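Margin note: ligand = pyridoxal-5'-phosphate.
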Amino acid sequence: MEGKRIRLIEPVVGAEEEKLIGEVLRSGWLTEGPMARRFEDLFKAFVGAKHAITASSCTTAMEMGLRAMGIGPGDEVLVPDFTHPATADAVIAFGAHPVLVDVSLSSYNLDFNEAEKAVTDKTRAAIPVSWGGYPLNDKELKDLKDEHDVLMLEDAACSPGAEYNGAKTGVMADITAFSFHPRKSITTGEGGMITTESDDYAEKIRSLKNFGVGKVGTESHFIRYGSNYKLSDILAAMGVAQMGKLARIVERRIELAENYNKLLSEVKGIKPPEKEKGIKHIYQTYAAYIEVEGARNKLIADLKKIGIETQIGTYALHLEPYFANLKKQGDLHRSKLLYENLLALPMCHTMTKSDQEHVVSQIEKHLKNYQG
Ligand SMILES: Cc1ncc(COP(=O)(O)O)c(C=O)c1O
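Resulting structure:
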């Protein structure tokens, strides 16, 4: 076991992806086309959404979502501080202003009570993130939306398959954006998907991603601003193959997470992620909290030396130079704590129980050493 390389994540790709990509290459149609439509139909059925629309990434999916909602200069959009920069970048892209809000120490997701305090007469939308695969609280989301007339765009980059008391990620918010970056549960290399129940948003997004094309009578014309955020059929072929594996990948990740929970419950100085009853957390990231002060970064470096790949959870945006001057709600101290202390553990589908025992025993050994 000593010296065996254990990766943070590995894409689950093989013969099915090769076969479908081959079909696209031989078809002569390489840009977005029939394979993207197949991918959308499969994703739509998986989530139970009315519309699913491919995009070039989750970031561009969010940009288009905000644009379709009519968000623009002067508008404020509530964003959790503990997230990937893309969540805030999508807001800035069209001249709107992100307002950074703190998160919960148990779910690592947006604290909806704090979000409510941040609402002003300029607030038009919020982008709660179902972080690492932990679903959003459906009721809290709807309360904020209905009581304050705030449009909801969920950043579900990490969460296809997650559920909150039966409410599926992908249908809770007005618009939901997913990512297929290789660190996600399923991947197309780079890619994204938007789901929505709204015919109006769907029509606008399909147009925005395709240079602003739309119908005037029966003819196609350019009827609004647009860009090129399409997903090539070569990548969509990967998506179609990956959809056949998604349910199994999610089950495997839950199995690995439950085993980590058991193993870590015996270890001092590290707290496994919490999970409310009735939710389906899909563990795109399995992030445990290191309680030994200053140990998290040392642990990442020391584990790397023996071939175990780990990572931080994600960023506290207010600590990054580009986002430091954005409007903030409160002191964002919980986001800072998570940024400094969360450790993402390896979650490869190929991991064995003994790999997991090795990871946990090395964490335990190093944590003990740091404390003397
Ligand atoms: C929460 C979150 N949002 C957005 C993104 C960006 O996704 P993409 O790389 O597909 O643009 C990521 C990527 O890691 C993410 O973790």
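The chain has two domains: 15-243, 247-370.
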